[in-house]
Design goal:
Elements: H1 2-17, E1 20-22, H2 23-33, H3 35-50, E2 61-69, E3 73-86, H4 89-157, H5 163-197, E4 205-207, H6 228-249, E5 254-264, E6 269-278, H7 284-352, H8 358-393
Parallel strand pairs: 1-4
Antiparallel strand pairs: 2-3, 3-5, 5-6
Length: about 400
């Protein structure tokens, strides 16, 4: 009974550890559960709430004045009232616009955060797909080298090959098996990394597509200006402009209104009211603040232009890399794949027939394996480049 209870308690953990997720499911999950995504969403919510502070009034002033009167004595007149300063309409408008720009900036930062998380998920799935393709290659090589070791053992027993050849082939087969085991560890590590990224308690069994090259045809490079990094930078320009408007609004006069009650020493009470106007007479400091805000707008605009320049240069480099890997893969598809297959076929046939010694066999196999591995690496690099292009352009 005790063992049954332990099994039932452990079952949810086992089920979680065996959770299978496609790339799109993982992206949906990371955008919901990752702390950075949650923080970005809360930042947007915070800025929406802060928009309500645009018309915040300064604290009211409660005053109490006592003055002497020649007829009523030392405490002849007492005045008690309250006064409230009202901000200029232009200041309210500028402040409201400032908080609206803060909300837009938070939205741009949220989009940038989401794209960075999506990039991490895509990188992991691409690497897992690459490892799966590599594992299939080494599984095939393992079968080939097992065949060779069997042939070498037979030839050694028939005194047709030296012991060193038999041992060398057995060692090479052991290296291939070790490589398969290493790839398995890499896959397990990526699965744990993915689980941590998705905030899941156990490793994720990532459902990957068959390893093949992916490509993006980018004809409109102006998409950089509409991507998340550019929008964040552009929001800094808008925010600086909104701050400039606030500084300019400080030169506008504000009013103060109040009500009061005057109590005379003879017991008579008179109501009253007051209106005052606040004028920024000493304007030098205000104008310096406006000048500084205008310079900040220029700084933000230049930084935005610099970001676009850097992004375009990065995109040009990535497109060049994409073209380079496309050319390398095209060579493999037209020549390399058939050459590698023929090298493997002829090596097995000639070695089995005793028409090839181990030195020649090793050279042929290294050439064939090199072609296969080069294809895997170039495909992986092309896919990584494509993923970076998608992240850069917001695709």
């Amino acid at each position: 009974m005790k063992n049954i209870l332990l099994f039932l308690f452990a079952l949810p953990v086992v089920l979680q550890a065996q959770q299978e997720l496609s790339e799109s499911q993982a992206i949906d999950l990371v955008l919901k559960q990752h702390p950075a995504a949650r923080a970005a969403a809360l930042r947007v919510q915070q800025q929406k709430v802060l928009q309500g502070t645009a018309r915040t009034l300064e604290p009211a002033q409660v005053f109490h004045n006592i003055s002497a009167d020649p007829d009523l004595g030392m405490f002849g007149s007492t005045v008690l009232g309250v006064s409230q300063t009202l901000p200029a309409g232009r200041m309210v408008k500028a402040t409201r616009q400032y908080y609206m720009q803060k909300e837009q900036q938070a939205g741009a930062l949220q989009t940038l955060t989401q794209q960075q998380l999506i990039l991490q998920v895509r990188d992991l799935y691409q690497h897992l797909s690459y490892l799966a393709g590599k594992a299939k290659l080494y599984e095939r090589l393992d079968s080939i080298y097992r065949n060779f070791t069997t042939i070498a053992a037979t030839r050694y027993q028939l005194n047709e090959a030296p012991l060193s050849e038999k041992l060398t082939l057995e060692n090479k087969a052991a290296q291939i098996r070790l490589m398969r085991e290493t790839i398995g560890h890499e896959i397990a590590f990526d699965q744990h990394t993915l689980a941590q990224l998705l905030q899941l308690p156990g490793p994720v069994n990532a459902v990957t597509e068959p390893f093949r090259r992916i490509h993006i045809a980018l004809s409109d490079t102006s998409r950089i200006a509409r991507a998340a990094p550019a929008l964040v930078s552009l929001s800094e320009v808008a925010l600086a402009q909104a701050q400039q408007s606030i500084e300019q609004a400080r030169l506008r006069p504000s009013t103060s209104v109040g009500v009061l009650g005057q109590y005379l020493g003879n017991g008579v009470i008179y109501p009253g009211w007051q209106v005052s106007l606040q004028l920024p007479i000493a304007q030098k400091g205000y104008r310096k603040a406006i000048e500084g805000a205008a310079l900040q707008v220029q700084v933000a605009q230049q930084e935005h232009d610099n970001l676009l320049l850097e992004q375009r240069m990065t995109l040009a480099h990535l497109l060049h890399e994409q073209e380079k890997f496309e050319i390398l893969l095209q060579y493999y598809e037209t020549h390399g794949r058939s050459l590698a297959a023929e090298l493997f076929r002829s090596a097995i046939a000639n070695y089995r027939a005793g028409e090839m010694d181990y030195v020649a066999l090793a050279q042929v196999l290294e050439q064939a394996i090199g072609l296969e591995l080069e294809y895997l690496e170039n495909t992986h690099m092309l896919n990584q480049t494509t993923i970076e292009i998608r992240a850069l352009t917001g695709s």
